[in-house]
Design goal:
Strand order of the largest sheet: 1-2-4-5-6-9-10
CATH superfamily of the largest domain: Ribonuclease Z/Hydroxyacylglutathione hydrolase-like
Number of helices: 11
CATH architecture of the largest domain: 4-Layer Sandwich
Bound molecules: zinc ion
CATH topology of the largest domain: Metallo-beta-lactamase, Chain A
Shape: globular
Distance between the termini: 35 Å
CATH class of the largest domain: Alpha Beta
Largest sheet: 7 strands, mixed
Helix content: 25-40%
Number of domains: 2
Strand content: 25-35%
């Protein structure tokens, strides 16, 4: 026995020596696959998991409106960000105890290799896509709706998918597609393609306005970025999480300068009003915010200083070890 273990140890040592002398210790042991992008926290009794869909170089120089190259440079510099900065795409999975609800689903295959990690990260968090009861979409842009399908099939076959009636009507309208800027053309195609399997199975339901949606879930209208952009408030035991979708794209720019808009906004004036009004009330009420494009996990509080907003990321809590 002792002899055998000596032999094993000897072989292991030999193997380690070979690995160290050829590939090197770090190269032999460190995976090139990024670790799962998941972040868990509680809101009252709700189990919330932020899911990273990935990051992509955010094209600040071409899409930001109502600003200048100098202002962009200064804002990025202040936050120690490169140009272009990495833009997060985040989704949020909320287990209410009764239902498993996903808010937004990332880009799926539509943004290429950078992204499309929501499904993998749902599994990494210990859930299955089949367990999702409800998918709530803040809006129908491809980096939010693309992840509900894979190769034309529903990723969440048992879920009801809900979005605003205004967005469903707009992104399925040929007339709206013709009137919209050319760069949005693929967004129309992506929305229709992603919703198709859910429409076919009778699993697509429109939301017609603000108010209670489910036990402890409320719809908050936040139009402008798209005609029917929605936010969703989840409440439990006196605590609230407000999932705000694309109320903010680049925090480094649009929090200190909330008047800055993006070329993807359907109605820039309304988008700005929604941003200022929702962020002001979140600051006043100390509401926890979850945002699709603030740096992952995109969860934190808002502080208002004059006309500017500041981001206070959620304090890290490890939770029980087992
Ligand atoms: Zn968007």
């Amino acid at each position: 026995m002792r002899r055998a273990s000596h032999l094993v140890r000897g072989l292991c040592g030999l193997l380690a020596g070979v690995l160290l002398s050829t590939a090197g210790f770090a190269a032999a042991n460190v995976s090139q696959v990024p670790p799962p992008g998941i972040y868990r926290f509680k809101v009252g009794q709700l189990d919330v998991t932020a899911l990273s869909d990935g990051t992509h170089p955010f094209p600040v120089d071409t899409v930001m409106q109502g600003t200048s190259p100098t202002q962009i440079g200064e804002a990025l510099d202040r936050e120690f960000l490169g140009r272009p900065p990495a833009g997060s795409i985040n989704a949020f999975l909320i287990h209410t105890g009764k239902k498993l609800i996903l808010v937004d689903a990332g880009a799926g295959a539509l943004y290429g290799d950078c992204c499309g990690q929501v499904e993998r990260h749902i599994r990494a968090a210990g859930y299955l896509p089949e367990q999702v009861d409800l998918v709530l979409l803040t809006h129908l842009h491809k980096d939010h709706v693309g992840g509900i399908i894979s190769k034309g099939r529903a990723v969440f076959p048992n879920a009801i998918v809900r979005a605003s009636k205004a967005d469903i009507d707009y992104w399925n309208s040929e007339a709206a597609k013709e009137r919209a800027p050319a760069f949005l053309s693929t967004f129309f195609d992506a929305a229709a393609m992603s919703l198709a399997p859910y429409k076919a199975s009778g699993h697509l339901q429109a939301i017609t306005g603000a108010g209670p949606l489910e036990d402890g879930v409320e719809v908050v209208t936040s139009p402008g970025h798209t005609p029917g952009h929605l936010s969703y408030a989840f409440s439990s035991q006196g605590q609230t999480l407000l999932v705000v979708g694309d109320l903010v794209h680049v925090g480094a720019l649009q929090l200190p300068h909330p008047q800055i808009t993006v070329s993807y906004d359907s109605d820039a004036v309304a988008a700005r009003e929604s941003r200022i009004s929702l962020l002001s009330s979140a600051a006043e009420n100390r509401t926890l915010i979850a945002a699709a494009h603030l740096s992952f996990p995109g969860v934190g509080h808002i502080r208002k200083v004059g006309t500017a907003f500041e981001w206070v990321p959620l304090n890290y809590e490890a939770g029980p070890a087992r």
